[in-house]
Amino acid sequence: SAVISQKPSRDICQRGTSLTIQCQVDSQVTMMFWYRQQPGQSLTLIATANQGSEATYESGFVIDKFPISRPNLTFSTLTVSNMSPEDSSIYLCSVERRARGFSYEQYFGPGTRLTVT
Amino acid sequence: GESVGLHLPTLSVQEGDNSIINCAYSNSASDYFIWYKQESGKGPQFIIDIRSNMDKRQGQRVTVLLNKTVKHLSLQIAATQPGDSAVYFCAENTFSGGSNYKLTFGKGTLLTVNP
Question: Which of A15, A26, B52, B114 pairs as cysteine with A3 (C-beta 3.0–4.6 A)?
Fold first, then answer.
């Protein structure tokens, strides 16, 4: 398994400001993922962050709004820029680790609950 | 388009009963499926997975069944306990280019276990 921590665990922010969320993993991983989970909804992939390369964004998400850093194999940050109330969500980081043959288990952090007022 | 969805948004069972959570998928090219459990205030937790060349896989108190003919996935929980109360998501693993892949999550089913 993998132990993943996120900071902050929650925050209340004013519209127009930006928040940077940190994700720390207890071991080196190649692929890290950032997801958004709106209240009562499922998870939506924002981007995939591999160390040493630019993050790959999913349809509907852009780098200017959600810049990502991946400075090493155990750490990543996601910034939510110029926030609006629609950005209120839980943001989760995840890492992939192959286990037991074909399994590509993804482990998730506890999430960062963001409220934008 | 590609989608992964659930038949039942909520499921309420008595403690000790067996639970069955269902999921439909539409991407016949998907070759790997995972079930996750998400408790309130926590991130999703891996439960069990299955590859498309399998019909059934068993874990501890959980079984996943895959019916590729009708593109249907189910999670069976035996002797459901109050600690099983959570939202359960199925996820579909699809390749996104090169050696990369991504998970597409279904909508989720809220399981409530009554003592």
Answer: A26
